[in-house]
UniProtKB/TrEMBL annotation:
Enzyme class: ligase
Function recorded in the entry: DNA ligase that catalyzes the formation of phosphodiester linkages between 5'-phosphoryl and 3'-hydroxyl groups in double-stranded DNA using NAD as a coenzyme and as the energy source for the reaction. It is essential for DNA replication and repair of damaged DNA.
Gene: ligA
Keyword tags: DNA damage, DNA repair, DNA replication, Ligase, Magnesium, Manganese, Metal-binding, NAD, Zinc
The enzyme's E.C. designation: 6.5.1.2
Listed name of the protein: DNA ligase
InterPro entries cross-referenced by the UniProt entry: BRCT_dom, BRCT_dom_sf, DisA/LigA_HHH, DNA_ligase, DNA_ligase_AS, DNA_ligase_CS, DNAligase_adenylation, DNAligase_N
Positions with a binding annotation for Zn(2+): C408, C411, C432
Lineage of source species: Bacteria, Pseudomonadati, Pseudomonadota, Gammaproteobacteria, Oceanospirillales
Record family assignment: Belongs to the NAD-dependent DNA ligase family. LigA subfamily.
Residue spans crossing the bilayer: none
UniProt organism field: Aliikangiella maris
Length: 671
């Protein structure tokens, strides 16, 4: 029995050390943190049950990490310890009870809480106020000298300010802000080189560059969280006050740091940070609680590699391991065939995930993924789950290649790939039931004809019952034909028919958008409406005429011409007009009526006085283009309540920011 346990322990130790090497030395972890944490907990559990099998080289007996021979070793003035973790409320309650038991009293405990930054731990030594050297954590006792690179980080002072200690060894976390991460990966894509998997890897890779000029371009940042050694200056009696001392000496401290009392205060802080996680300008993977009073910290002391007075409360993992069971292919409104991964269900990002997007065949080729592979799945916030990498060492012998089908999985029409395009398409057009349904859903959607009550499920049902074959059939629906449908009572039938009748009064821009022409979004539809003024003129427009319009290039013009060249599409438009769809006559807009022409705006946060769609429509009517992301080309940002990363990025880029009140005032002055 002991021999079997020894084999398990040896296997776990070897696996964990291999993952440590990939994480700390190669900066290329092959498994998510959650898998690493599981293996470490399993090893701890076995060693606790069999203490005679614990050896000095076990990962549980040291802070993980090895030196890279590219950097000079440097010994820490005091060891850089790591933190133990809890993963749920029960674990944290047990931890707090252990604190009270060790202190032998029930006095109220205050904790300093802070986000657990997802970056690279660093120790920086200042002597007489001047930055002397900086080192990575390494093995906790000896790290790597990265002084030259640390000096390139703008937020790290080369000289302290105020009444600082003669000798200060300060610990912090180097990280890459989300905005910098997006830029570095965008640059990598444009240059055709490998992108970083996440900001943590990007920060580690940037800090450990042999050429400091490369590090200087990466826009790294740092927050300091503790003091290792201080001589020649009295330190405050609480952890929070010591952080404020660091701040007074010119060292950045996370603005989210807060002092709370007991378990309830900690858990309230945890929930707050978790809810705002996606809006923070940096990646975090949990929060850290530290007993605030230094005297109490000293009483509690340390275990082998971690302080008893501090604990990390990890968030639900955003990355997890699972197995790719199959790849299905879905057909969209424009015939685009999208591969969808069917996964062994796994809990990640707070939900159970069994499907993930694979985007297109180019993405499958880039990942090198095969059916049967063990993959890393990522789900952050409301982002659609996606496969980010393959764990090649776990690939089974029977792993199967993923191939695009030669025929549409819905209508069996041929599948083709356009030149220079990553997307394959079904050639069936409106013969394909999948495209018919999607076209009707798009036509009825809020941004198109806005037919309230005609949702996706009802459209599916109406199509299956042969009551809808294309969008013109919407206006042929009668109370008699729909009253007996599932969940369709008399009142809901009346409401639906009323909404259908109401939709007949629209705008030319909305009508063009509702037709579902490839590459024609709301902004392009508005441009077309303002240019041609009448649907008949647009239908007859040539490729050259279309390309002369601002923001319409060769590809979009081709799709528009092809759409109207299709006789069936022309017939559908005629039938819609005969059914009573109409719009007000458009006067030819001039520059005085479109004072925002050429400007790109972004809307973020919650608006109180109007819906975001209404604000977008007002901007577009005045000639502005409304984008979903902030860039250097953005003219202005409209920021409502709870604005997040877009507001942070706009601030960094120096872009004009309007509050809702300022926006309403501006619109009123124009009108």
């Amino acid at each position: 029995m002991t021999l079997d346990i020894q084999k398990q322990i040896d296997h776990l130790k070897a696996t964990i050390e291999d993952y440590n090497y990939q994480y700390y030395v190669l900066d290329n972890p092959s498994v998510p943190d959650a898998e690493y944490d599981r293996l470490m907990r399993e090893l701890k559990s076995l060693e606790n049950a069999h203490p005679e099998l614990i050896t000095a080289d076990s990962p549980t007996q040291k802070v993980s990490g090895k030196l890279d021979n590219s950097f000079q070793p440097i010994e820490h003035l005091t060891p850089m310890l790591s933190l133990d973790n809890v993963f749920n409320i029960e674990d944290f309650a047990a931890y707090q009870q252990r604190l009270h038991n060790r202190l032998k009293d029930d006095a109220v405990l205050a904790f300093t809480c802070e986000p657990k930054l997802d970056g690279l731990a660093i120790s920086i030594v200042y002597r007489n106020g001047l930055l002397e050297f900086a080192a990575t954590r390494g093995d906790g006792k000896v790290g790597e000298d990265v002084t030259h690179n640390i000096r390139t980080i703008a937020s790290i002072p080369l000289k302290l300010r105020g009444d600082y200690p003669e000798l200060l060894d300060v610990r912090g976390e180097v990280f890459m802000p989300k905005s910098a991460f997006e830029k570095i990966n965008q640059d990598a894509i444009e240059q055709g080189v490998k992108t970083f998997a996440n900001p943590r890897n990007a920060a580690a890779g940037s800090l450990r560059q042999l050429d400091p000029s490369i590090t200087a371009k990466r826009n790294l940042a740092v927050y300091f969280y503790s003091i290792g050694t201080a001589e020649g200056q009295a330190l405050a009696d609480t952890h929070y006050q010591r952080l404020m001392q660091l701040k007074s000496w010119g060292l950045p401290v996370c603005p989210e740091v807060k002092v709370v009392e007991e378990a309830q205060g900690c858990l309230t802080y945890y929930d707050d940070i978790l809810n705002r996680r996606d809006q923070l300008p940096y990646e975090i993977d949990g929060v850290v609680y530290k007993v605030n009073t230094i005297a109490t910290q000293q009483v509690l002391g340390f275990v082998a590699k971690a302080p008893r007075w501090a604990i990390a409360h990890k968030f639900p993992a955003q990355e997890e391991l699972t197995r790719l069971l199959a790849v299905d292919f879905q057909v969209g409104r424009t015939g685009a065939i999208t591969p969808v991964a069917r996964l062994e269900p796994v809990f990640v990002g707070g939900v159970t995930v069994s499907n993930a997007t694979l985007h297109n065949m180019d993405e499958i080729e880039r990942l090198g993924v095969k059916v049967g592979d063990t993959v890393i799945i990522r789900r952050a916030g409301d982002v659609i789950p996606q496969i980010i990498s393959v764990v090649l060492e776990r690939r089974p012998d029977n792993a199967a290649d993923v191939n695009i089908p030669e025929h549409c999985p819905v209508c069996a029409s041929e599948v083709e790939r356009e030149p220079d395009q990553a997307i394959y398409r079904c050639t069936g057009g409106l013969v394909c039931d999948a495209q018919k349904k999607q076209a009707i859903k798009h036509y009825a959607s809020r941004k198109a004809m806005d037919i309230e009550g005609l949702g996706d499920k009802l459209i599916e049902l109406l199509c299956d019952k042969k009551l809808l074959g294309n969008v013109t059939d919407i206006y042929a629906l009668s109370k008699t034909s729909i009253i007996n449908l599932e969940r369709m009572a008399e009142k809901s039938a009346d409401n639906l028919l009323s909404a259908i009748e109401k939709s007949k009064q629209t705008t030319l821009a909305k009508f063009i958008y509702a037709l579902g022409i490839r590459e024609v979004g709301e902004v392009t539809a508005l441009n077309l409406a303002n240019h041609f003024l009448e649907i008949e003129r647009l239908v007859e427009a040539s490729q050259e005429q279309l390309e002369s319009i601002k923001d319409i290039g060769e590809v979009v013009a081709h799709h528009i011409v092809a759409f109207f060249a299709n006789e069936e599409n022309r017939i559908i438009i005629e039938k819609l007009l005969e059914a009573g769809v109409h719009w007000p006559t458009i006067e030819n807009p001039d520059e005085d009526q479109q004072p925002l022409l050429g400007q790109t705006w972004v809307i973020t946060g919650t608006l109180a006085q109007m819906k975001r769609a209404e604000a977008q429509q007002k901007l577009q009517q005045l000639g502005a283009k409304v984008s979903g992301s902030v860039s250097s080309k953005t003219f202005a940002l409209l920021a409502g309540e709870s604005a997040g990363s877009k507001l942070n990025k706009a601030t960094e880029l120096g872009i004009k920011i309007y509050t809702e009140e300022e926006f309403v005032t501006m619109i009123s002055s124009i009108n």
